[in-house]
């Protein structure tokens, strides 16, 4: 298919506002962690090269999934290069989000959210992506050594220069996010409208604090690893061997992601199996649909090694779980809260989320 071809959308894709901004994003976003497969860590994700990546972009556009998420550290920049090549000739049809903060070079300033590093990181991403602007640029982590004012002033300048259109962050604590938003308001700078966060049926810590900040401050969640770091694919069940193809077979990748106790995982998967059978959907589709009904969620990042997996994940939209199904999944995935959240949730005056 020509890179300039017009796509007929097979199924309507729901679009949502990205936090308290005017940007509408698709409910599902394709993550590019499987592009490249360079390095021990990313070998566990996948190794899609340009041909496979281009086909995945084709399939996404056919289904109305127009947003693609990457980062400079994904396969050492190769993922951004592949994504840039895959969208060549159709930049106006897509939204690109990417990230920087982690180490990207041998020098003392090749890491963090300083002015020095962020300017270099954005320029590098623009070059690898083959574009002159990034729709959503996110800090990949909180940098405690750089004043938030320096970071925000740098990002604000790049928005004014037209290199970035919207700002986000990722993996912040609630107080990190609130401190940054307060500083942006105090200085009259562009504020974060998105927070890319880990959230899944086997990882609900996001609800304790970050969700409340998002609701209060208009910050939309861009959810990463919605299938619990490959645990909710429907292939992992009690008493069965691990599937041959899984990032959990890569010890480096497994250790670098969220840790989930086996018995808790099986308890959630049992509930997912039951709900999936009742609604006639797959386990991943149910897990993704549950997330799409949670407060603050603007878009959920899906990943895929194959076109078949991608099409299956895209089937998570266009329908909704019933309140009873959501209740069943909520109960199976509930875990004891850390202090002070258990105490706050015990105050009946406060609605949920607090």
Secondary-structure topology with pairs:
Blueprint: E1 15-17, E2 24-26, E3 28-31, H1 40-43, H2 50-62, E4 67-69, H3 78-86, E5 95-100, H4 115-129, E6 134-139, H5 148-160, E7 164-170, H6 174-187, E8 194-198, H7 210-217, E9 220-224, H8 251-255, H9 262-279, H10 283-292, E10 297-302, H11 307-314, H12 323-333, H13 341-345
Parallel strand pairs: 3-4, 3-10, 4-5, 5-6, 6-7, 7-8, 8-9, 9-10
Antiparallel strand pairs: 1-2
Question: How would you describe the overall organization of this protein?
Answer:
With 354 residues, this protein is of the alpha/beta class. It has a single domain, classed as NADP-dependent oxidoreductase domain (TIM Barrel, Alpha-Beta Barrel). Helix content is 38%, strand content 14%. It has helices at 40-43, 50-62, 78-86, 115-129, 148-160, 174-187, 210-217, 251-255, 262-279, 283-292, 307-314, 323-333, 341-345; strands at 15-17, 24-26, 28-31, 67-69, 95-100, 134-139, 164-170, 194-198, 220-224, 297-302. The strands form two sheets. The chain has an eight-stranded parallel β-barrel, surrounded by five helices. A two-stranded antiparallel ribbon has the order 1-2. The longest helix is centred in the last third of the chain and has 18 residues, at 262-279. The mean pLDDT is 92.
